[in-house]
Amino acid sequence: MRNVLWWAALPSLVLASVSCSDSVAPDPGSMLGTWDATKLEFTRVANTSEKVDIIPLGGVFVITLAANDVCTATLTMPQTAPENMTGTWSVSIDVFTLHWTGDTGNTQFDFSLSGSTMTLVGGDVDFDFGNGDEPSKLTVVLVKR
């Protein structure tokens, strides 16, 4: 009898736990448009005190998120020609995912959106800190145009 009561109560418990959650995925429509990076910081995994933010050094990153989950971006590293990229994007409650065309795998970030500012933290990327590409974590702060 005890098992029957437990199984009968389970759906109610599940619904209660789901409805009490404060986390809600953002409306993807609110994210559509063009975003400019105010921070594009690479943190060296082997030495987390070593960081490089390319924006104050003259770097530029602009990304456009379209309704069909397609994104386009232009990355200009300091003193280099712009690099144009295309790919796809998706967002869940707290994860933002980018997949660039021609790359294997996705880059996932912890994600937050506050008004017209989007913050992406912890993306696994490679960056040249002076001795060739090394594993790093990427933090990006974007402001919507």
Question: Could you describe the 3D structure shown?
Answer:
There is one protein chain. This protein has 145 residues and is mainly beta. It has a single domain, classed as Lipocalin, CATH 2.40.128.20. Helices cover 12% and strands 52% of the residues. It has an 8-stranded antiparallel beta barrel. β4 (70-76) and β5 form a beta hairpin. The longest helix has 18 residues, at 2-19. The chain is globular. The model is unreliable at 1-21 (pLDDT under 50).
Q: Remind me, CATH topology?
A: Lipocalin
Overall pLDDT:
85
Per CATH, the architecture is Beta Barrel
Q: Which CATH first-tier class would you pick?
A: Mainly Beta
Question: Numbering strands along the chain, what is their spatial order in the largest sheet?
Answer: 1-3-4-5-6-7-8-9
* Number of separate helices: 1
Radius of gyration: 20 Å
List the helices and strands and how they pair.
Elements lengths: L1 H18 L13 E12 L6 E3 L6 E6 L4 E7 L6 E9 L3 E6 L6 E8 L2 E12 L4 E12 L1
Antiparallel strand pairs: 1-2, 1-3, 1-9, 3-4, 4-5, 5-6, 6-7, 7-8, 8-9
What keywords describe this structure?
9 strands; mainly beta; Lipocalin; 145 residues; disordered N terminus
Task: Kindly summarize this structure in a few lines.
With 145 residues, this protein is mainly beta.
